[in-house]
Design brief:
- By secondary structure, this protein is of the alpha/beta class.
- The protein has an 8-stranded parallel beta barrel with strand order 1-4-5-6-7-8-9-10, surrounded by 7 helices. It has a two-stranded antiparallel sheet with strand order 2-3.
- Helix 4 packs parallel to helix 12.
- It starts with a helix and ends with a helix.
- The relative contact order is 0.16.
- Its EC number is 4.1.1.48.
- Keywords: Amino-acid biosynthesis, Aromatic amino acid biosynthesis, Decarboxylase, Lyase, Tryptophan biosynthesis.
Length: 261
């Protein structure tokens, strides 16, 4: 069993437990549930930088990245830096995140928030809406075409945008459908953790222009973004590069400023 299989196995058990404690009606009564969401795809289409900055404390591949910042410090720093949106890791066991991180982020900033999570059930999409997310992530590697369709359509009904993450041609081919807004190519193989921008380059031409193209993981330099832009990418998800510094907001500010030059 690889790390991705373990994460999904644990996530399915976690969702069953959560459902038994917090009913859907409680999620639907959240103050954020009726909130109008902010479109990340529109922001990326018109942005000159396209940065989606990530709040991530740790990961299975890197262990601890940074535990010293508060969520508010990080996300306000990202917003002030000019990020188009913020990705918030909510997985606890493997990434040290929580839904409270999403809630605190929503209370702190007014830009699009992505719930970065291993979504396997509609219940998690209701949680995303209730805790202030504007969009969700669906990972093609762990979902069937039917699951991608039903989960993405459910998200759209709630007014959430959908970023679908793929890693190879097979995942891309099974995933393309009208209920997606953005297609992200993960440059990190979730099974081996190998990182290469070639994944984004190889798949770019096969992603229809109807979708905003996002490149994820392994982007640590302005050169990498310059390399990917000609392939049609307008979104770039950056996490560890900012989080591993002494001040994530300042690191993002410097990066985005240099990118705009």
């Amino acid at each position: 069993m690889n790390i991705l299989d373990k994460i999904i196995f644990d996530k399915q058990r976690e969702v069953v437990l959560k459902k038994s404690i917090i009913p859907v009606s409680q999620l639907e009564s959240s103050v954020f549930f009726g909130r109008e969401t902010i479109s990340l795809s529109q922001k990326l289409r018109t942005s000159t930088t396209g940065i989606i900055a990530e709040h991530k404390r740790r990961s299975p591949s890197k262990s601890v990245i940074n535990h010293s910042f508060t969520v508010e410090e990080v996300v306000k720093g990202y917003e002030n830096a000019g990020a188009c949106g913020i990705s918030v890791l909510t997985d606890g066991k493997y990434f040290g995140g929580s839904l409270d991180d999403l809630l605190l982020a929503r209370a702190s900033v007014n830009i699009p928030l992505l719930r970065k999570e291993f979504i396997v059930d509609e219940y998690q999409i209701l949680e995303a809406k209730a805790f202030g997310a504007d969009l969700i992530l669906l990972i093609a590697a762990v979902l069937t075409r039917e699951e991608i369709k039903s989960l993405s359509e459910f998200a759209k009904k709630l007014g959430l945008e959908v970023l679908l993450e793929v890693h190879n041609q097979e995942e891309l081919e099974k995933s393309i459908m009208p209920s997606l807004d953005m297609i992200g190519v993960n440059n990190r193989n979730l099974k081996t953790f190998e990182v290469s921008l070639d994944f984004s380059k190889q798949l770019a031409a096969q992603i229809p222009d109807d979708f905003v193209k996002v490149s994820e993981s392994g982007i640590s330099s302005i050169e990498a973004i310059s390399e990917l832009r000609p392939y049609g990418y307008s979104g770039f998800l950056i996490g560890e590069n900012f989080m591993k510094t002494d001040n994530a907001g300042e690191a993002a500010t410097e990066f985005i400023k240099n990118l705009s030059v």
